[in-house]
Amino acid sequence: MTAPSSELDSHLAVDRGPDTLLTEVVSKSPMRLAVARFRKDKLSMVSLVVVVLFFLLAISAPILVAADLIDPLKNDTDLLDEYGLPLGSFGGISGDHWLGVEPGGGRDALARLWYGTTFSLSIAIAATIIAMFIGVVAGIVSGAAGGWVDAIIGRAIDLTLAFPQTLMLLALSAVGLAFVEEILGVPRGNPAAAVYVVGVLGLFGWTAVARIVRGQVLSLREREFVQASQMIGASRFRIYFREILPNLWAPILVTFTLMMPAFVSAEAALSFLGVGISAPTPTLGNILTDALRYADSAFLYFFFPALLIAIIVVSFNLLGDGLRDALDPKGHR
Amino acid sequence: MAESDQTVTEGTAAEEVPTVDEVLSQAHAASELDPDAPAVLTVSNLRMYFPVRSTGIIRRKVGDIQAVDGISLALPKGGSVGLVGESGCGKSTAGRAITRLYQPTAGSIEFEGRDLATISNRELKPLRREVQMIFQDPYSSLNPRHTVGSIVAAPLRIHNVVPKNQTLKRVQELLEVVGLNPEHYNRYPNEFSGGQRQRIGIARALALQPKVIVADEPVSALDVSIQAQVINLLQDLQREFDIAFLFIAHDLAVVRHFCPEIAVMYLGKIVEIGDRDSIYNNAHHPYTQALLSAVPDVKQAITGGRRERIQLTGDVPSPIDPPSGCRFRTRCPIAQEICSRHEPPLLQIGRRHKVACHFPGRLGEHPHAPLTAGLLGVDAEGRPDPGASPSSDLVEQPGYADTWFDLDKKSIGRA
Ligand SMILES: Nc1ncnc2c1ncn2[C@@H]1O[C@H](COP(=O)(O)OP(=O)(O)O)[C@@H](O)[C@H]1O
Ligand code: SF4
Ligand SMILES: [Mg+2]
């Protein structure tokens, strides 16, 4: 007591007005600490750079296509031999075709991969957003409301998980596509297929998010600010989405980065099973599926999309792990 | 306000750490009881049980956590009542049931002719303006993602208290009232210290200009010097805005200055309630006496010069399966057979003093025979006494009656 307590100091500092206190305290804020932790982790930083690079690639492809700088659709049989395989060594790699040409059609492999990245990431992002939206809303309501609401959402999660997804997806693809085309009015063909794939991935992918969010909400619910907002007469909606939701951005961000790569590979798997966007429009999935046929005759044509998918999956996962470690140093999951 | 707080702290700069009470006494006169003040909030027989459910798919109810088990008290207009007890006694639960954060299991909470205990959620919303709460933990009671301005503005917005374009002005006024810099409205809670955060919570509670504030251990999380500042602030606000406080605390030192009336709670029940003098100088319940012996400056008076502390061994028992009879008997130094058989009624033993014990008395002067045996119609061991008939008016009532049980005559009579 003789020495003024730190409390009193801070009172005085604030009352004097200048930002002496502010600068000192802000450096301690959880956000700053998380950023500092993240920056220290080399692997996370590298994965962040790679992920940003992929987004730049995905955004630039349509621009380059529009500007006619790359053309993923132009066939050129002059580049192929009589078996439809690329002329020249290494899958037809040349100054004009940096990654070689596509067997069968003679289209530029780089252009197709580049443009395909755009489609694959778009599908993954769209599906992730849908899954996150459903999962976050379901998780918040489930965790915050409790009782029978929680029980019903819990059963819905169990049911979704128990659903033989892949099987149903194939069996129902005709019905599903018809639904997308006729009821939602999406043009037949690739647009409808894209919507179907996004819808299916999103509608089946939300359960993990819902569980994570619910767990977080259960602990947030015990924080007194939730009671405080009840106390001032806040509506349920306000409590869920104005009080609780802003405290969930860390797990949401982490889940988002971890879900994206899962959906990139899921798109590839669905492509292989014959569901989804089909050539000539490229996706990493349908390029890889097509390339499987040439795995031994045109190895590089198969190798590049496989490598690209692997890099996407690994870098997004590393980024997600890094974010989680930085945001939640105790690692309680 | 901030300046006066500093003087308080500086004025107490001494070698030895003073108690909150000592710090407070130097700043303000203690709040005095107004015996004629009408009750603004009357709690009768309030119960709050939490169901205990079995694990598994069909979650059947297997028991109750009897967190609050029939408490009655009257909160005088503009006055303050302290609610004191160890951690786990059900104080917060009582506060939350009174403010309708919980739906009470039974009992009534009368406020301006309405019963808050049974009112619907729709009717409750306007009443939120009248009854507010200050929370215990300044670190968890403010949303870390909202600015101070939006935290204090939230009640104003929800209840449309002021026109939209005047919200900021009102927020700044409120910050000033609680002694914070009004220009700091766009900062986040983590930029403030514990005491300042608690002031933000107070500003939020004040925003609706309530008549009643339940303060759930508002200073327990703060340093002693800051405790005094916050209590001073509450006292100033109480006088300025005529707010009635139910002040919850886990020790008797904190409430002494602020609360002219104090209720001591143990395991869901009020065991002793009375005005300041009755509790601090004339406690009759062994539990109150034990709590008092932990208050440094009261220790000497109550223990008659013996400075040692009355140790309470063990923890508060589980409210799922509370001890039979008197709930304090497992830890009571003077418990006898009757204590396990019968629950002691909360008897009025003075003008403003009630106690629930079979052997009520000042420390070291507890009677040898149970004073309540006659009232309960039992013998000294608590077995049914065929010759006696139980007294009919042992039902707990909020407030105080004009007649009370005279400890010397062992009968109910007028003073
Ligand atoms: N929401 C709840 N559900 C179940 N039990 C509870 C709940 N809230 C409190 N309790 C129990 O009720 C008892 C009293 O708790 P509380 O009112 O917090 O005590 P205090 O505030 O006096 O420390 C404790 O045993 C606690 O475990
Ligand atoms: S009733 Fe018995 S056990 Fe309870 S406080 Fe009094 S003496 Fe102790
Ligand atoms: Mg408590």
UniProtKB/TrEMBL annotation, chain A:
The keyword Transmembrane applies. It is a multi-pass membrane protein. Keywords: Cell membrane, Membrane, Transmembrane, Transmembrane helix, Transport. InterPro entries: BP-dependent_transpt_permease, MetI-like, MetI-like_sf, OppC_N. It is found in: Cell membrane. The chain crosses the membrane at residues 46-67, 123-149, 161-180, 192-213, 248-279, 299-320. It comes from the Bacteria. Signal peptide: none annotated. It holds the Pfam family OppC_N. Residues 117-320 form the ABC transmembrane type-1 domain. Its main location: membrane. PROSITE patterns: ABC_TM1. PANTHER family: D,D-DIPEPTIDE TRANSPORT SYSTEM PERMEASE PROTEIN DDPC-RELATED, OLIGOPEPTIDE TRANSPORT SYSTEM PERMEASE PROTEIN APPC. Belongs to the binding-protein-dependent transport system permease family. This is ABC transporter permease. The lineage of its organism: Bacteria, Bacillati, Actinomycetota, Actinomycetes, Propionibacteriales.
